[in-house]
Amino acid sequence: MQVKKVLLIDDEKDIRTVADISLRRIGNFDVTLVENGKEGLSAAAAIRPDVILLDMMMPEMDGITVLKKLKENPETRDIPVIFMTARVRDKEKTEYEAHGAKGVIDKPFDPLSLAGQVRKICDFEQKDAAPCRPDSDDSND
Amino acid sequence: MNDFTKKLSVLVVDDDNAIHSALRFSFNEAGWDYVGVLAGTEALSLLRERAFSAVIIDGILPDMTGVELCRAARAVPGLVMPPIAFLSAFFKDTSTLRELFVDMGVGIVLHKPRQPREIVRRVCELVKTDCSSSVLTPESMAEFAEIRALYIESFFENARAIESLLEGLESNPGDSISLLSLRNIVHKINGSAGSYGFARVSLGAARWEREILDILDSGLAVSADALRGFCQRFENIKVDFQSPRHSDNDDPDEEPRLMSQGLFASF
């Protein structure tokens, strides 16, 4: 099975730490961690990950801005982006998806099932060797 | 990984014979071997001699405190301590909790009075690895245990920052910068605590964050009532942090956010 590359952009160390171990140890992903949007944009263009996990609330550049910039760049616009957020209000999920996110994973996430959630949203199981399609209409529950 | 074909065994260190009678009955009922001792020195001898699946340590013993027993056990070369449940009649301040969780390797703190069957249930959760063993190697388990200890450290740092912001808001209720800083810290706790096994802490933080956002949206100062509410939220979070897995009084609307905590149940 081809190892999928995940780029995680989150300013919070506690989240990067637990997500890193979950994705590597349980999901067998190749994980790159960065702590802000600027680094995230560079890393996305450089490593071309199979999926980007993007925190919503970050200082300097928030998740929505990072997503817009990713979509503006031809090198990164097809990479599916999953928002990770501690939602406070229910309407937020549809708002995020309207911005072009492939899916939303709620924080706090279960470290045992994070990798599975990512695979499900990106349909990695079925399309093992192919990059996941950003416009496919699969479930992101 | 634990071998679940072997019988589980618990060592209970408590100077109260009534506690032993009640716990012995409940642990035997659940199929555990029960060994009870009244003092810390006896416990140390037994821990040197044989392995247990878990140890329950009372906070105050005739010859030493529970913390001193943990410390003494950790100082014994080659002694691998089983998961520790700390039994206490008192809620702990954050520095004591930090010492218990981070320095002493305590897995859970159980407050008296508590039903014996509830104690058995919590200790079963503490030692079980069935959920995690299917996907995790011992190395991964160790890695997760290590990051959880770091998270506990980081929680206490956040708690200190919250205390200071609440004090600031008491003297200046219209300080929106402090309120925003408070929101940011509460948001972090909301988003992370559950991933480290503290689901109820996340729930409490989520409710608190909503209240803070409502005030920020209104543009008003924090009222005296709201500030009292904040302090209560903070106290509740600290209590939930001490009892990360209790499931009573759960709000059914929030239930979906109480994710499986199988991973961290084993630490």
- Counting structural domains of chain B, the number is 2
Q: What is the name of the CATH topology of the largest domain in chain B?
A: Four Helix Bundle (Hemerythrin (Met), subunit A)
Quick one: how many beta strands of chain A? 5
Helix content of chain A: 25-40%
Task: Explain what the structure shows.
The complex is a heterodimer of chains A (141) and B (267). By secondary structure, chain A is of the alpha/beta class. Chain A has one domain: Rossmann fold, CATH 3.40.50. Chain A is 36% helix and 17% strand. Chain A has five helices and five strands, in the order βαβαβαβαβα. Chain A has a five-stranded parallel sheet with strand order 2-1-3-4-5, with helices on both faces. In chain A, α4 links the parallel β4 and β5. The longest helix of chain A has 14 residues, at 13-26. Mean pLDDT of chain A is 84; it is low at 126-141. By secondary structure, chain B is α/β, with parallel strands linked by helices. Chain B folds into two domains: 9-128, 3-Layer(aba) Sandwich (Rossmann fold); 138-265, Up-down Bundle (Four Helix Bundle (Hemerythrin (Met), subunit A)). Chain B contains eleven helices and five strands. Chain B has helices at 17-29, 40-49, 66-75, 94-103, 116-127, 130-133, 138-171, 176-192, 199-218, 224-242, 262-265, and strands spanning 9-13, 33-37, 54-58, 84-88, 106-111. In chain B, α4 links the parallel β4 (84-88) and β5 (106-111). In chain B, α4 (94-103) packs antiparallel against α7 (138-171), α7 (138-171) runs antiparallel to α10 (224-242) and α8 (176-192) packs antiparallel against α9. Chain B is elongated, with a radius of gyration of 20 Å. Chain B starts with 8 loop residues before the first strand and ends with a helix. Mean pLDDT of chain B is 81; it is low at 1-5, 129-134 and 246-263. The chains are: A alpha/beta (141), B alpha/beta (267). The A-B interface holds A 12-15, 17-19, 21, 25-26, 57, 85-86, 88-89, 106-113 and B 131-132, 135-137, 140, 143-144, 147, 150-151, 154, 184, 187-188, 190-196, 199, 202, 206, 209-210, 213, 257, 259-263.
